[in-house]
Amino acid sequence: MPTSPRIRRGFPGDILETYAKDMTRSSVVNWLPAVLLIYCKIPPEIPTWFIFYLQNVLVGLAVFHFTRRVTGNDLIGVMTIFVCYMAGPWQWNLAHYWNFMSWQPNPGHISLSLIVFSVVAVVDDRPLRAMVLLLASAITHAGLTIQSAFLIGLYWLSIYGPGKNRELLIRCVVLAIVGVACLLPSIMLSLESVPKVPISEWMSAVYTLDHAVPWNSTRWMPHWPLRFLYVFILVFMAFQQRASMHVRYTRLWVASFVGCVFLGVLQPVGVGG
Questions:
Q1: Is the pTM for the entire model greater than 0.90?
Q2: Within 13 A of 81's CA, how many CA atoms are on the CB side?
Q3: How far apart are the C-alpha atoms of 125 and 59, rounded to whole Å?
Q4: How far apart are CA 241 and CA 249, in angstroms?
Q5: What is the CB neighbour count within 10 angstroms for residue 151?
Q6: Minimal CA–CA distance to 168: which of 118, 231, 117, 125?
Q7: pLDDT in tens, 150-169
């Protein structure tokens, strides 16, 4: 990604010149408008507005697709779209992620929809389609994708046990490809001769992030009990309906629950360490 000559002349070696291009590489939401501007002379407002509308439309389509698959009922799928837009479940998180859905493009919101589509492909036993969707998600938001790939891996382990080594191997290759795609921006950065930040300085910055240590945020504390309650109610309702779900969706529920609990415990342990 070209760096502005003004930046190179005026502030050589500053953080913007050093890291901006690498941060830009990390998401298609960042680099696509820049590429279209540089090579096609398309104003960045046009792809930005397109991405904004795409993230709002995709989440409804993804929820409809998933709900219709689970219930086999189109009407319930349509009703779920309205409930989704009214409730805004992307806000119900314990990591204090802000809601950008209605006012700016956000890689996480687009990635979330792609992940939901990929989960349906996973349960439908279409690993190649799932891989394509996860790769699209990886170039959009690597962090969400690699966490979701972990949950999908747990699901595949629960489905393909002894005697199904070939099927499991194929799916391990899929996850490995997705993992490499998620790590590619970091790998590219590590190959460049850029200044390395000491771990002590890096951790001091981590402790200021609401996402990493949300319990230290005064903005997060008043909201987390309600968010936890929302998530608990959804988990409980899904558990009650397990008898009416296909065994694959039941195993998906269990794998997702176990994986989320593990990742949830891992976060304070990792930050504390």
A1: no
A2: 15
A3: 22
A4: 11
A5: 21
A6: 125
A7: 999 999 999 987 778 889 99
